[in-house]
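Quick start: what a row looks like.
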Amino acid sequence: MIQDTMRKLLIAAVFFLVWFKAGAAQPQTKIYVGLSTLNSRVTPLWIAQERGFFAKNGLEVLLVLTRVSQPAIAALLAGEMQMVYGGSTAALGAVSGGADLKVIAALTNRLTYDLVARPGINRPEELRGKRLGVGSIGGTVWMGAMLGLEHLGLEPSRDRISILVVGDQTNTGQALEAGSIDAALLDGVFTRRLRQKGFPVIAEFAGASIPFAGQGIVTSGSYLTKQPAILENFLKGLLEGIDFSLAPANKASVLKTMTARLRLPDDASAEVGYQVLIRGVEPKPYPSLEGLRNLQRLMRVHNPKVGSIRVEEMVDDRILRRIIEGGF
């Protein structure tokens, strides 16, 4: 009887090993996702990658940092990338030129940047005649700057505020320290170090509730039509990454990932980034039509074609809604 039992256990073990190896051998679909920005709100994607949330949905997700939106959108349209995570301004510009792009999710729907100035500038009105640094003209930070200045009652042309392209958030902070610019719009995680060095924060837009199509997931219309299952699996992994990142019980793990990925100098900087993350990332990342219309309103001054876009046709969150409303 003991031998019979042992034989059954051995057979069961063999079947388990065969099943396990078969499951482990399942090929994963490799997809490339462009990152046109680098800040603490990217954390849910890093978490989904590190924790295997994408992998368990059959995907090998490669995150490619482009730092600005235009080359990422160009790679998307060329089929070299399947999605882009970043601002919607470049997407709006491409659509105005005839591109077929869809916003399928949006992690950030409000302006969350800080307006930091060099020492000696302490009030928004003192920015008149000064130099403001951005990553690129027409990019996410540029658009955030336009909305922020508008909120403060300032207008670049009227108030002679020069907009200078200086690079990503790291480069912008360095340019401000070097005196190459007088002010910059920075993510909170980059603000802290400058504040410690005596650079005043003259506006914190996180509390102003300014609708803003910030960090979105953009794909092409053709890829959405041909590969809805891949996009569904990606969004499932992303939702798990968001859920994990925003859960208080996981704070230590989230801080560890954020510190490593952003190369933060200390725990205090990571804590600032964490607060930006939990305040800025949407638990249910539906795209904001109001935020897109805000961008459209400002962009059409420089690109009249943008005014003819029906932004509601750019948004396609059917897959996301099906996942969330299905109780995933």
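That is the whole record. The mean pLDDT is 89. The longest strand covers residues 29-35.
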